[in-house]
Amino acid sequence: MDLANKKERRRTQSINSAFSNLRDCIPNVPSDTKLSKIKTLRLATSYISYLMKILDSPYENCTKLLSEGFRADLTNAKRSTQQNRIETQNFVYIVHLYNEHVNSFEKSSPSKLNQN
């Protein structure tokens, strides 16, 4: 197998692993639920919005939001323009965090990237 195929396989495995880790961070999703990558990103952005709302809320609202908990919307309902905008902003933030993680990994362990 050539080097390009190995690199692509590692990249794909890394992305799949990152999505798996992201799925594990989303609360209230049954473990037997199969999520597509786009659904995982949508749920993650929804969860980030929920957490941001908690951080931005006064104490009274914050405790109410926490007591209600995050509800993972597993339906395929159409999204409003506002929801799409928020999801896009959160998605960009997730990609930024992911890139920072990958870059820090590459800097801390360059020898691992050259193996196999």
UniProtKB/TrEMBL annotation:
Please give the superkingdom of this protein's source.
Eukaryota
Ranges for domain BHLH come to 1-51
Q: What is any Pfam family matched here?
A: HLH
InterPro entries per UniProt: bHLH_dom (IPR011598), E-box_TF_Regulators (IPR050283), HLH_DNA-bd_sf (IPR036638)
Q: Per its record, how is this protein called by name?
A: Heart- and neural crest derivatives-expressed protein 2
The protein's organism comes out as: Dermatophagoides pteronyssinus (European house dust mite)
